[in-house]
Every structure is written in C-alpha cells, then in structure tokens.
C-alpha cells in the first residue's frame, strides 16, 4: 500500500487515476482548491486538504511521509480563448505550482520517493514528419514554452534525491471529455471529417493506457524524466477521421479548414492541427505493454 498525494484529482485523468489507486489498495490524499467538488469526485480518498499553490506554508508539511506526489493541476487549456491574460494563468498555474511543490521538498525530512508531473506532447510543437522521442528538442511556440517551464521546475526534484517523471501526454481518447467527445457530434450529424489539412500526425492514446502509464511511473524505479504517453500506432488526422467514421458508420468527408478553427478557437486552432509524430521510446525500452496499440480497436472499445 502506498500513500499518494494527488493534485488535479477532479479532472478526468485525476478521477480515473484515483479510482485505479484506490482499487489496488493505495491511500489517496487529495489537494484541491474546492474541497466540496473534490469530495464528490473522489469520495473514497483517505483525506482532503485545501490547496492554494501560492501559499505553500499551509500545506508543505503534508508531503511528509508520502510515497509519491502526482501533480496534475493546471488551468484547462481549452476552457477559453488564449488571451494575453489567460496565457499568464496557463503558465503560472503550472510553473509556480510545480516550483512550490518541489521547493517544499527542501523543508521536510521524509521525502516522497517519486514526483510525477503532467506535461504534454505540445513540448515538441509542430514538426511535420520528424520522428519525436523524449530526446528531441522543444519547439519555440507558446505551448512548447509552457511545457519547458513546467518540466524544468519538475526536474528539480532530483536535487532532493526524489525520482522525477514528466508525462508528456498525447490526445487522450475518451467519450467523457476532450477532443474525441467534441468530434462525435459532427459525425452523428453526418458532417464529420478531419481537422486542417489532415496530413498532420495525430498522437493519440486510449485513456486506459494513460492511467496505466501513471501507475507505471509511480511503481517503476527505472522510469525517469520525460515520458511520451502516446500509442505506438500513430496515424495521420486523415487516417484517424476515416477510422472514426468507419466505427461510427458515418462519412468522414467534411474537412474543417484551418481558417475556420482559427476563427472559432483562436490560437488553440493551430495546436489542434499541429503535426507531432511522437513515439513512446522510453515506454518501449522498459517493456510497457499498451492495451490499445491500434486506433480502430481503441475507438471500437470506446464507442461500441
């Protein structure tokens, strides 16, 4: 049994990860800004603590004698347009919160053995057909800068002899939230199709495998640093759209032009059509077994 601190427990991945930890007998301690929401989302947690990442003095002692800290909290990227003020919130909610958690390690005696922090394949930016492993350098756009700052703060955990993992997640496929859920309505209305040119690489992963990767990160001492959480069976957006249409028994011929995405969601539209041919090199090296390597099988599991 492990004792695990969790931030971002009310998010989709957070709730599912808490479920998985609880089901295997671990104790989950939830840090949340909204305790009522947290207790509704994760009623079985061992304890709940009010968490203001800007005030570490009120919570840093709670990290003592825990086995792991899993840090998933951060402003939702798709909750609003990326204005100058919202970009500041996106950065601060990740960079400062992570910095304060790691700084807290210097003030306690019995440190967690591992610090696991969320990240994203946005680290790489849009790179065409280039194969991208954990060793590939970052890009220079906004989302890449966010991820670089985020991971830089998380990596400082090793200064305190605490293992560090940053999970660079691809597009997590689930019908409960996120990209796939938003795509379903157009298909059901017979107007579904690829986003942008369709030739861009689409780094997807089934939600169940995302959770299994986080569990692996908690348990496997050989997994360190940035880890690409993407399925090995990567496809282009055209291939994904065609497969989604096939599974739903709907056409996939109505392309959404880049200009429409730019008008509807602003700068986020370019992120939605970026090309990231990401491979899960580190997971392959440790022999991690994906449940869903094939996108059609993943979509059938989710939709049928």
Characterization of the model:
The protein has 304 residues and is an alpha/beta fold. Helices cover 38% and strands 17% of the residues. The protein contains 11 helices and 13 strands. The strands form 4 sheets. Strands 3-2-1-4-5-7-11 form a 7-stranded parallel beta sheet, sandwiched between helices. A two-stranded parallel sheet has the order 6-13. The radius of gyration is 19 Å and the shape is globular. The mean pLDDT is 95.
Characteristics:
38% helix, 11 helices, seven-stranded parallel β-sheet
What's the total count of β strands? 13
Amino-to-carboxy terminus distance: 35 Å
Task: Give helix % range.
Answer: 25-40%
Strand content: 15-25%
Uncertain regions spanning at least 5 consecutive residues: none
Mean pLDDT: 95
Spatial sequence of strands, sheet with the most strands: 3-2-1-4-5-7-11
Shape by Cα distribution = globular
Structural class by SSE content:
alpha/beta
**Biggest sheet: strands, sense, closure?**
7 strands, parallel
Number of helices: 11
């Amino acid at each position: 049994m492990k004792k695990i601190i969790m931030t971002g427990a009310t998010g989709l991945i957070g709730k599912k990860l808490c479920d998985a930890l609880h089901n295997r007998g671990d104790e989950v301690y939830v840090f949340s800004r909204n305790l009522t929401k947290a207790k509704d989302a994760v009623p079985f947690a061992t304890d709940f603590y009010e968490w203001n990442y800007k005030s570490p003095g009120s919570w840093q002692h709670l990290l003592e004698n825990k086995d792991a800290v899993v840090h998933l909290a951060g402003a939702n990227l798709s909750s609003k347009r990326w204005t100058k003020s919202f970009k500041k919130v996106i950065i601060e909610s990740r960079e400062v919160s992570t910095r304060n958690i790691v700084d807290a390690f210097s003030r306690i005696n019995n440190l967690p053995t591992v610090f696991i922090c969320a990240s994203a394949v946005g680290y790489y930016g849009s790179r065409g057909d280039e194969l991208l492993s954990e060793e590939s350098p970052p890009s220079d756009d906004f989302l890449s800068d966010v991820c670089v700052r985020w991971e830089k703060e998380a990596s400082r955990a090793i200064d305190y002899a605490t293992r560090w993992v940053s999970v660079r997640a691809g597009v997590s496929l689930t019908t409960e939230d996120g990209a796939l859920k938003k795509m379903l309505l157009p298909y059901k209305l017979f107007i579904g199709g690829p986003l942008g040119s369709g030739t861009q690489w689409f780094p997807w992963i089934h939600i169940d495998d995302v959770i299994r990767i986080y569990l692996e990160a908690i348990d496997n001492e050989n997994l360190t640093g940035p880890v690409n959480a993407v399925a090995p069976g990567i496809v282009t957006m055209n291939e994904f759209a065609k497969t989604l249409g096939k599974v739903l028994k709907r056409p996939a011929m109505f392309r959404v032009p880049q200009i429409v995405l730019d008008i509807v969601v602003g700068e986020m539209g370019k992120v939605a059509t970026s090309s990231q041919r990401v491979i899960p090199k580190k997971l392959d090296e440790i022999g991690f077994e994906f449940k869903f390597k094939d996108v059609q099988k993943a979509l059938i599991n989710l939709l049928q």
